[in-house]
Amino acid sequence: MNIKTLLLSAGFLSAVVLVAPLQAATEIVDQVVAIVDDDVIMASELRERVNAVSSNLKSRDMQLPAEDELIRETLDRLVLESIQMQMGVRAGVRISDEQLNEAVQRIAAQNRMTLEQFSEALAQQGQSYDEMREQVRREMTIQRVQAGNVNQRIQITEQEVGNFLTTQEGQSLSQPEFHLLHALLPITPEASAGDVSAASAQVDAAMQRIRGGEPFKEVIQTSTRPFAFNGGDLGWRKLDDLPSLFTAVVPELKAGQTAAPVRSDSGFHIVFLEAVRGMDQIVTQTKARHILVKPSEIMTDDQARDLVAQLRSRALADEDFADLAREYSEDIGSAQEGGELGWTTPGQMVAEFEAVMTETPVDQISQPVRTQFGWHIIKVEGRREEDMTNEASRAKAMDYVHNRKYQEELDAWLQQIRDEAFVDIK
Asked: Does 228 share its domain with 122?
């Protein structure tokens, strides 16, 4: 698969432009083929995109549509892109160089290349690295415009999520997933009692080594009698997707455990549970208050840090932390509540804040901590273990229903903006 195909698979719909430039020199004077609100689409732009789409389809061994149909569909796409780019300009959508660099690095990584290698590979195909970057910026802008307009059209009720979870599809979505390694010591049903006994002894020896802490793959690969599927990786699978031989034993395992050998007509199977996700999700929640002081034009960063340090000393000297928060905290969301944050779940707070909060014992006040918002001190008031399994299942269902509605609403929105725009095809 070449680079232009991989760009497409990375989700950049318009990346089909990134193919070898138009080969034949042309003497045709460029001309406007469409006026789209305040923008124009030139014949050269249309020709390049048609050539790009054709090259991409050919590289995938896909049948080309009729020439008239290809030109019409390509022009329609260019019109929609123009409308959305103009909307982005009016809304002030801007992709920073840092965001663009991260996106380009992801594309290079998906091509299994460094940025330097990626740039060289593009040059070898006659493509410009700078033009590719701008095409990625354009696509990111369009995606942001789409998300901003389409997400506000989507309404999902709790009842809708609950109804989805009762369906077979919803129940499957909330099932745990197992990452399994598997090995088979072949032995036929007709094997002699002696052969079966020898194979069973070897499997028992392998099991003893695995349970003793030796890596599963190493044990299987160094066995005196060769296993088939030397540590074969079955990947992440839901219980319904596992071979029927394993469905009874796998749910009883914990990550890092090996099931008792299973005998089939093929031989002895050993299954190792590498990891599991989506089981009962018990998380440690923390109840806390905080005081935030923000650096400003009249308060330097050092002065903000010194102030929260002084407030910490006052709280340790038995002044009421909540009263101090009401007077000094600049977190408008919690100051009037005495800095109350309630019970927080891991991942809910920014990383620096959460790390210090987690390390602070109950009924203690943290040292000052700097985050993107300013300087904080944190008073931890309690900790508890909470079962978040149901919440996690509902969150997965919410995402699934949202994604399904998103495409429907996106199609409707694209049709709407196309109908409302002034488009003059020349």
From this structure: no
